[in-house]
Protein: Gamma-glutamyl phosphate reductase
Amino acid sequence: MITIVDESRNEILNANQQDLDAFQRDDRALFDRLVVDSAKVNGMIAAIRSVREQPDPIGQVRSSGVLGNGLRIENRTAPFGTILIIYESRPDVTIEAAMLAFKASNRILLKGGKEAVHTNQVLVNCWHRALAENGLTADWIQLFTLDRQATREFLKNPSQPVDLIVPRGGDRLINFVKEHARCAVLVSGRGNNFAYLAADADWEQVLPIIINAKTDKISACNALDKVLVDEETPGLAAKLRRLGAALRAKSVQLVAEESLLPLLEGAEPIAGESVWYEEFLAPKICFGWVAGVEKATRKINRYSGGHSAVILTVDKAKADVFMEQVDSAAVYHNASTRFTDGGAMGVGAELAISTDKLHHRGPLGLEQLVTNKYYVYGNGHIR
Structure:
């Protein structure tokens, strides 16, 4: 597959240009995710290579032992069977999801968005060439090009067995899948990530962390959307003006609670409570007041998507309280939320970032694309 993708580089880029030409560029985040250039093809190849070199996750013994009655019991990792992933844009998912599922001995059904149909078709053709050259059938990796109605019908009455569905997108997609699916759904949920700036935060760290978390890649689910400022922060006015100016210099729109508007030049008032629930996927950030770490954690748990949250403080004990109390897949102390990513966390390529608690939260890498099975060995045992 590494060789085939490299040889097909021009075909991939030409197909992607077809998709880009047909795209209505009113959704910047979706457009950013759609773009494939030569560097992204290199990234696809690097991802394949990294997964190829990881150990086979299937048949690994999780526990073993012999009971008092002589029964020997092993618990081993096993494939799910068939995984359906539904995603928008992101042609690189067509590479990463398929390679992870395949190496974990799962079949995968790829339901990409119509905006990436030409790119996805070329990438799946590459997969089918690789499968054929190794004597394997094309049904290991299939591309679905169903419209919304056909997808709904497939979820309700699948024409083939499906063991796990992973919707990778916003609330609308997730709710659509959960409403109609007839099998297990593992949610790759929205971001809406929060930062809490404690009163003792080191503002020499605050500025680069907030700027990076917000602006490094606005279309990513690990981008920052909300900042909670502790009302006891000394010299807050000057600090916020400095942060606001740095964000405006990066063309970020500021919105804030009324009492913070005088401290953030050019900021607009928050339109309503619904803004706190919103994942922006845009150059936009929201500021609010909070009184202490407990109220910060309470507000984050109420409004966030359960993806990533960060506390900026020099007090480790305060950070420990925050990190234990915030109910998110990844919690940070003095670091950008942009690290919630399989590669950045040392997991390798990822299928998605799960915000579910069963069976796994965080990056879904190769080791997480397995279930388990008990192997029980007896010698005429009866109960």
Q: What stands out?
A: The mean pLDDT is 95.
